[in-house]
Design goal:
Blueprint (H helix, E strand, L loop, with lengths): L2 H21 L3 H12 L6 H13 L1 H8 L12 H16 L5 H15 L4 H16 L1 H11 L1
Helix pairs in contact: 1-2, 1-3, 1-5, 2-3, 4-5, 5-6, 5-7, 6-7, 7-8
């Protein structure tokens, strides 16, 4: 696994998820458009495809993991921050091969690049709580090492 190619897959998947949320276009159409016109860097294409197809398929379940940690309705979230939360929650739940700290760090980098100025603080707080619920053993082990 090439970390740069994986990071680029997340980058493009975030843009694709934003487009999906805003336009309602199918993930197949968005995939074709991105492959033909958007993707210009080295990308883990299989991972990109996994993200852009799995997240819409699992949106209801992902949102159920996110909603308890929000202080406002999910439909009032910034669309970029919502796409990042869904992407990271998908990874926390479905990609146990990726350490939770890596997932959160990648989400924060995406938020700093594409989100609002202070959005990374919000995203970090929500993802930290989600990780403590979904990855309870991994988070506890990390907390124990800090002590």
């Amino acid at each position: 696994m090439n970390p740069t190619a994986r990071r680029n897959a997340r980058h493009y998947a975030l843009q694709a998820m934003y487009q999906w949320q805003i336009s309602g276009a199918s993930s197949r159409d968005i995939e074709a458009q991105f492959i033909a016109h958007q993707i210009v860097k080295t990308v883990d294409l299989d991972y990109f495809k996994e993200l852009i197809h799995s997240i819409p398929e699992q949106q209801v379940a992902l949102d159920k993991n996110i909603i308890p940690f929000l202080r406002r309705p999910i439909d009032e979230l910034d669309p970029i921050e919502l796409a990042i939360l869904r992407l990271a929650t998908y990874e926390l739940d479905s990609r146990l091969d990726i350490p939770y700290r890596v997932i959160i760090n990648e989400a924060l980098e995406l938020t700093k690049r594409f989100g609002s100025v202070e959005g990374y603080k919000f995203v970090n707080g929500v993802l930290d709580q989600i990780a403590r619920r979904i990855r309870i053993d991994e988070v506890a082990a990390g907390d124990a090492k800090k002590k």
